[in-house]
Design the sequence.
């Protein structure tokens, strides 16, 4: 396993797609030193996009969070989230009724602002489901799992609805050694109970890549060989980049450690084009 | 699909194993008229055993619950639960340390009284797991799903333990149209997150059948051709009875309706020897 | 379920993506009347692309097959196959060694012509795997299942390789009532034996959509709202189109019958924008 | 991990259940020295039963195979196979029609001799399935996988039948480093294609344990605490013994190596009561 310098790889590309958690941030906040890398990329006129499996906060909120952490020049439009993809899907496909959701009010406000009414699952009356037209898993917070998971099962037994999982990550890190169960994990429980598959958004699916690529080409002229995807997770970032057809860099500053990387690459067959310690050097 | 009289079938056997929910009880309480059937079986000297996938209450508590519902002559020793099987397994296999559990205090008291210490998951300190020797899923109540499901995932990431699911039913009925997510469903979520399989107890596995059979033959002399298993669920009761090698009767008074039965039998390939409307006639 | 006229829908778009089997062809050959629809689309200057989960034949061979069936004006470049996507992936990611394959020589010639050596699985010596760099499932024909499925399992136990499934369809129709097991089914057997996931190509994944979209925009200027995806299978065509973000039409001339469509749509939650009997009217 | 002497453990029991492959035999034939252990057990009047997941040969054939290998005193009635369990099930549950099978003629002769007609899958006419009443997976040999796997899928699409898998092992060893795909693997492929579950026989399910236990108690008086199960595979032998409620010994002479055992035990949570190098000492 050859470890290379990220900076010397990145400068060969016109565009760099960065995962957020494990690349720019970790459980401690900003990874120390990433500001220099961002400055380096800016100085070479390399375009940056952050592609994140997050559906709980808006682009603006995510940008502000980077600012608070000290990464001041990340702009709102540079952030692309799986929640945006779910929002786009709902706008196109659900044109009437109320959208039921599991998640915080903030996540609902952000994703479901599209003119359609939305209603938290806990406020639904299971005896009167006529106007409910879809269900969205937005966030693992904002609801009572003891009551609302069972209520969701009953809702879907009573009425067949399109069900959208805005972030399909099963878990996410909350400290060096701890994870939390994410919306993707809760959705899987209910898929398993009902023997049904929901519509999942987020890497490794291509939607965020397509969105970023389209938007770049609405004003410029970029092809996929000029784009580099950088991430810390083989199954999401590297597989996603490989399938979209861009070069991929695995960094060892997050989910995948230096010790585990060779075995994980071999056993998964997901092969990054480059491997770097982090994006720092 | 030929519907037969339960009483005329039952009188051909020396022993009748009955599932509880959907056969003797439903969401309303005792199924009206089962008392006469129990009286009929007693009058013919047919031995009764109730085999139930329940791990939250002791034999005595379950017997008392039947008494309160008006079925006064069901005795403690006639009830066999998946919880008893889990208890037996733990006694044999876990001989030191503390057993962590998810469930009510009552379920823990009943199942884990075997001399070993037990501790509710919420009281565990994840930084000090040295004395934790096993984890048991006992009941879907008695803990906070929002915090304790995630804590369970972290516990099992930190320490590999034998994990026992005392009742593997994914859901159970709570009213005519509603179900609740059971311990089996929550266990599946965590199995899925960790890519691991736990040890599950309950029908269709053979342990309760073996237990009942052994106990009968400790004082009498019965062979399997003299036993009838009666249940409302193909995947649990009928498959379990078929695999244990006794004759099976599907009743249509619970999970499987008259309309659904033919399709479910054909598509599952699980074939009861007899089909009856209920055990009433 | 509202059934609409395909022609009046199609004329609202600049580009129509068509699935092949169940839309243009069926087990009998060309679906009678599709030539008129193709003529109609040409007359309106609507661009056509055929997106097919097929990895056994080249674009030219597929075009010639349409010509033989009487659809003379389908051109090579209008056909996009999952095999092309696998080929592109291999070219980018596998840059040395020999590629082992399961399939016909023809499929290997077409997909693996990229400069790398390829070798049929049956010719591999399991004691000497040093130069084998990847494995591809190309076709369900061209090898002996009795010996080569087991040999594949042993190959992957001896050496961890990237494994690519060029067509992930589990089965495909061969007559009105019969299907054949496809490469996707055989791949699943081996994934299941090894507890591993391979890299699958084909709808509903977005690669073919992205490829077609990119190629259109290399010479023109189309956005996704101007494209219609037409297919007969909810899980492949409609889900794929929905996720790529184009409007979708389900036709009832193939896998999904008029009787099954409402239930399948409700139970899957995969909602086409339009439903048409076929593309004929 | 404490390694103990098998002989000193075994002499504490009245009955020893032995797995065949990995305990008595391996790819080379008889494991050198097992004859002395059998002699030792006989000299102490310890009863022996061989419990094997094999459905291709009769008890007599299996006994003769042991004799040819030099283990002369293993008797026919001491061998219990998963095929016998499938046979018993078919006799009880399938009382008319023809049983279709996949496997050798020998396996069919042995298992399906029960009075019912049987027919190899290849001889079935898919247009006339009226008299076919069940399907059995008997052996991985004796049929053409290229044609008959697909034919099986079509058979089960045309007619819903009970499907029995007489040996559910997914693979079995054929040499030090090679395995072969077993009937259980092929059955899984078809279960996956049809989204259906078949009825599987063999360890870890309890049927063979129950059968042996019943037969012992038809002439004697043994309880489960007097029985020891010995096997080389955690998921089949040890889990099966644990669930049946007897003490279990893992031997390291087959599927589970000394290096892998601690990790496999921890990660599976399947805990043998004893661990021995082999049954030799």
Sequence:
């Amino acid at each position: 396993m050859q470890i290379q310098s990220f900076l010397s790889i990145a400068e060969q590309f016109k565009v760099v797609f960065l995962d957020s958690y494990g690349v720019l941030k970790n459980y401690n906040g900003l990874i120390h030193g990433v500001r220099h890398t961002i400055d380096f990329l800016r100085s070479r006129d390399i375009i940056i996009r952050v592609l994140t499996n997050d559906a709980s906060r808006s682009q603006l909120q995510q940008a502000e969070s980077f600012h608070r952490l000290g990464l001041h020049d990340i702009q709102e439009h540079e952030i692309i989230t799986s929640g945006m993809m779910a929002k786009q899907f709902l706008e196109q496909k659900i044109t009437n009724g109320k959208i039921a959701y599991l998640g915080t009010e903030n996540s609902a406000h952000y994703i479901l602002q599209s003119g359609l009414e939305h209603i938290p699952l806990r406020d639904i009356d299971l005896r009167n489901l006529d106007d409910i037209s879809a269900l969205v898993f937005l966030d693992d917070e904002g609801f009572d799992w003891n009551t609302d998971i069972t209520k969701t099962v009953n809702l879907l037994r009573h009425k067949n609805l399109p069900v959208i999982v805005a972030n399909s990550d099963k878990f996410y890190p909350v400290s060096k050694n701890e994870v939390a169960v994410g919306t993707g994990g809760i959705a899987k429980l209910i898929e398993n109970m009902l023997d049904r598959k929901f519509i999942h958004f987020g890497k490794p699916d291509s939607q965020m890549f397509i969105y970023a690529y389209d938007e770049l080409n609405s004003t410029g002229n970029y092809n996929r060989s000029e784009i580099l995807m950088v991430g810390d997770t083989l199954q999401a970032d590297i597989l996603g980049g490989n399938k979209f057809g861009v070069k991929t860099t695995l960094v060892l500053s997050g989910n995948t450690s230096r010790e585990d990387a060779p075995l994980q690459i071999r056993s998964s067959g997901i092969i990054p084009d480059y491997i770097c310690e982090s994006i720092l050097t």
